[in-house]
Design a protein that fits this description.
Length: 147
Amino acid sequence: MEKTFVMLKPGVLQRRIAGELLNRFERKGLKIVALKLLRLSREMAEAHYAEHRGRDFYEKLVEYTLSGPVIAVVLEGEDAIAVVRRITGPTNLLEAPAGTIRGDYAARTRLNIVHASDSPASAEREIALFFRPEEFFPWEDGNRDWF
């Protein structure tokens, strides 16, 4: 089973839609195996977005992520990365169709409400940045045949 990382950004908590977004992932059969509410340090936010350093939107992205608590989640399932990316929709809001998280909830592209790993390498790096091994809670899915 593949694991992926999702971060629900401060706008999700401010708008009180965390449960709705987590429910979308669960309804697709993905399992939550790690979850925490936290306020990122500048160092952690900069490490998370290191690949964007030097781009015009980098500082605003970091500042937005630091503006309030975030929810960090590790989801597990078949093709979890691709499934989560499909559920979240494209980063550019003009391309995000209705029915995706970004298409339904996001108001500005650069102040996006959700981050989702885009590759196995990114997922591995981001999961390791946010979670220690003892913070994972694998569990057997007795409802596996339902999905």
